[in-house]
Every structure is written in structure tokens, then in C-alpha cells.
Amino acid sequence: MGDFATGTASAKEQTRISEWITTFDTVFPNHVNPLGTLFGGRVLELMDVNASIACWRFSRLPAVTASSEPVDFRAPIFLGEIIELRSRVAYAGRTSMIVRCEVFGENPSTGERRLCTVGHMNFVALGPDKRPTPVPKLRVETELERYHWEIAKTIREGIAKRRAQAPF
């Protein structure tokens, strides 16, 4: 694999918007639990990959998963359905990014589409030395982006508090 971890110059001085990254998949038999619904671990795997692309697109730096934050499984996704994953950076700190992930299930026969999972993932950008490196500031423009930013900021504060209280 080539050296792709060069990033951009002066990332900390830049301000960028974060666009939704959307990918699609299909639920195959090897992805379901005994109830015939998509296994939650598979959903998390797909979210992690989609969210990492959102981080890379936003920061132009490779990023690693630091933690999986609140994930709400609201509705099942069934065998044979189409999975739509949407992720965008909702909050950017100095070196970390909180990504909002939304997962939809779609019945391919009827076109019925529903929000099934909402979650947040925490990533840290890495420089060529594989150490945390600054990311651009996030430009928040719409009311929805502001709402997502507020949620992600609260999540970020919870991460900091949790780490400060850890006995190890």
C-alpha cells in the first residue's frame, strides 16, 4: 500500500463544510441473525467504513476510530433489503471529529424507505508520523447542521468527561 498519509498543509487554519457521504449495500443471508434481520455488528461495520470516508473527505487526512458513541437501532433491516448509509462530520475538534451516521432500510419491491439506525462515531486524524494531527474547522451553515453540531458537541464533552474519570 502506498504512502497516503500526507494530508494537507495547515489543516488547522482551514474551515470546511462536511458533505454527506452516501453508500449502498444489500442484506445477504450471511449478514442476518436468526430472526432474519441485519446483524447489528454488520451495521456498525458499515457505519465505521462510511464514517471514515466522511472524515477523510472532510480533513483530507486518514483517520482512525477512537470510539463508537450513542448508536440507536430504531427499526430492523430485513434480508434482501437495500441499506443506505449516510455520514458526515458533525463536529470537528483540534484533532478529532464526531461523525453522524444514519442508516436507512429500503424494501426494493415497494420502495418503502425508513430510518433504522442513528449513531455517532469519534475519529482521530493522523499525520505522516501516525500521531494525532490538526483537522480543519467545521463550517456550520444550516439549522440542521447546527442541531447536529450541538448533539456532537455534547457527545464530545461526554467523551472528555468519561476519559477524565477513567481509573486507568
From TrEMBL:
GO annotation, cellular component aspect: cytosol
A Pfam family per the record: 4HBT
Entries under InterPro entries matching the protein: Cytosol_ACT, HOTDOG_ACOT, HotDog_dom_sf, Thioestr_dom
SUPFAM superfamilies cross-referenced by the UniProt entry: Thioesterase/thiol ester dehydrase-isomerase
GO biological process: acyl-CoA metabolic process; fatty acid catabolic process
Highest taxon above the source species: Bacteria
Ranges where the HotDog ACOT-type domain occurs: 17-129
GO molecular function: long-chain fatty acyl-CoA hydrolase activity
Keywords: Hydrolase
PANTHER family attached to this UniProt entry: ACYL COENZYME A THIOESTER HYDROLASE (PTHR11049), CYTOSOLIC ACYL COENZYME A THIOESTER HYDROLASE (PTHR11049:SF24)
Family note: Belongs to the acyl coenzyme A hydrolase family.
Protein name per UniProt: Thioesterase superfamily protein
